[in-house]
Structures are given as structure tokens and as C-alpha cells.
UniProtKB/TrEMBL annotation:
<protein>
    <recommendedName>
        <fullName>LTXXQ motif family protein</fullName>
    </recommendedName>
</protein>
Amino acid sequence: MKKLHGLFIVAQLVIVLAFIQQPLIDSVSAEENSEAQECDCDKHHKKHKEFHQYMRIHKDFYYELLTDKYAPEQAEQWKDIRSERDLLLKKLTEAKKRGELLHGDVKSKEWMEQHHFLQKQLTKAVKERDEKKIAEVLPQVFAHYEALNNEFQQRVNALSDTQTEEE
């Protein structure tokens, strides 16, 4: 069973590395042919967005695995946070398609700074295989994502308020 789990993790890493290499290969070839090609910003933006969507799936699963091992009491909370985030992002994406939303994700500068800080702590703990630190940081990461959900919810509520006023 451990071998199967190890193979699964290795397979995920190979997939992630394949996704990471492709934009690098594209950018190198684009630099070589920069004079011959016109800017295809929409295509690049779409690839970038797809990459982040794929990475979110992997990161969510990674958090789930870490939670199962180091903070099993947080497993349900993480599933709830993830489900709420996905629902809110879907609402924001639909509003953007309808032209009601001028900006994409709503992540405050403070949230992003805290996010980078927590990610560095978690990465260090994982790199050092510090089980105690991982178990300590995971709940902080989940609370942080819950705060992001609150920011998303405020944005959705603001859209709802705007629609109500227009009617």
C-alpha cells in the first residue's frame, strides 16, 4: 500500500513538472521568434489561467493528504472551505462573464502577504519533515483560506446588492 501511495505521489510530481516545463519551453521558443510572431496575449492568458486551475486541484489534494496524516481533526473543515471556495469562485466567474464584475479574484494585499508567509512556513516544515510544525501550520492555512472565502463572499454580496438596486 505504501508503494502504491509512493507511486501516486511520484506520478503527481511528474505531471506537475510537465505542466511547469511547458510554459518555460513556450517562452523560450517565443523569445527566439519574437520578431516573426505577433503577441497572442489571450492564448497566453488562457494557458496561464488553466495552469492555475490545474495546480489548484493538485494543491487541494496535497492539503488533503497532509491533513489526513498530520491534522485529521481538520479534514472536514478543509473540505468545507474548499467546497465553499469553489462555489464562490463559480459565482464570481459567472458574474464576470455577464459583465457585472470588472476584476477577477478578490485577494487583498494583506491576504497575499499572509499567504506567502504561511506558504513559506509550511514549505519549510515539509522540507524538514517537521511533523509538529506541519500540524501547527495547517490549521493556520485553513483559517487563512476561510478568510479568503469571506473576501469572495463580500464580493458576491456586493454584486447581489448592485443587482437589487438596479431592479
